[in-house]
Amino acid sequence: MANSEAAPGVRSYRKGPERRAQILLRAMELFAERGVGASLRAIGEAIGVSHAALRYYFANRDELLVEVYRTHENRVHEAQARERSAPEAVSAVAMMERSAERNRSIPGLVELYATLTTDALQEQQHPETRAFVQARYQRVRADLAERVRAGQESGAIAADVDPEDAAALVVAASDGLQLQWLLAPDDVDVRRSLELLERLLPGAGPAERTAAEP
Amino acid sequence: MANSEAAPGVRSYRKGPERRAQILLRAMELFAERGVGASLRAIGEAIGVSHAALRYYFANRDELLVEVYRTHENRVHEAQARERSAPEAVSAVAMMERSAERNRSIPGLVELYATLTTDALQEQQHPETRAFVQARYQRVRADLAERVRAGQESGAIAADVDPEDAAALVVAASDGLQLQWLLAPDDVDVRRSLELLERLLPGAGPAERTAAEP
Q1: Which of chain B's ends, N or C, has fewer CB atoms near its CB within 10 Å?
Q2: How far is CA A9 from the centre of its chain?
Q3: What are the chain B neighbours of A184 within 8 Å (beta carbons)?
């Protein structure tokens, strides 16, 4: 191999992580532009990284897709941590509205997400993707259920709403609406439909929401 | 070809549709058992139909997947037409609850549906799938929006709810919940989450609903 990647066995521990991060970034840009339909080989060609180099950093296409999505999520969480000091003040639905709004500017991302969740259904062919998606859903639902509980404590959400049922509903609505919007941008308005759901699962009240979301 | 299919050009118009329907049925059974991950060739092998024969009836894997899904939908509509005389009495959410309940007994079906919707996002690679999925969403949303309007006329649903926004929300919730349920059957309860949504978009009232749904 004449390029900058070391061959397996003589792995350069200093350059490795940087190069890996660089590849992930370029893959993310590629997916945003052209979608995720390509093979690992085609992805390598498109981002100017040899197939051998890609295979050095990622066991297979599944791992690359998962890592690209994970990188995106980490960036979002870092940005959120910088922006807000009290994330728990945001309602479950408002949380998903923001996420959908962000994703809107990165079209390839919803496609990547849809690919990961569909692959996850095929346990035999995509075991690692399945584990990643299952863990992610569990984490997101737990976070949203907490927000629903906070809404119940503040009196905004009816006490007899099951927080877990509500959390699954909010995630489902957000996922499904983004997909429908990509297929029919003139007919589907993610924000308006989610605002409808917020009537059922409101935040901590208009005053507090305005304070938490400048 | 030694099997029952005629070679292209000597298409048997009498046997053709029957054989095609038979292949669709077997493909549907295969997907229910083992998922949709296989190539057209592997599908042919699994259902005992030569690749050439499969290609005679279906231009490619996308067409087979779409036709299998369409066949399932037609069967459901026929069963509905037999069972009920007044489908418009059923609320939008109850409609999706029933659909989810049916799909639950055919696990491969939700995977097939997820595959079709994800493929649909890739306009370049799957134009026919995209057209099918777009038309299906449009049709389902229009039907649900009608049910929301009926709910508004009966006074069950708030008059300021936009029927189209509500329809997109209900489809999204139903799609997303079924997917989450497949990945975490112990954590997600499709019916309970949808019943939560029905608080926002109720049917025509308990009395009428009981009458319409024996």
Answers
A1: C
A2: 33
A3: 134, 137-138
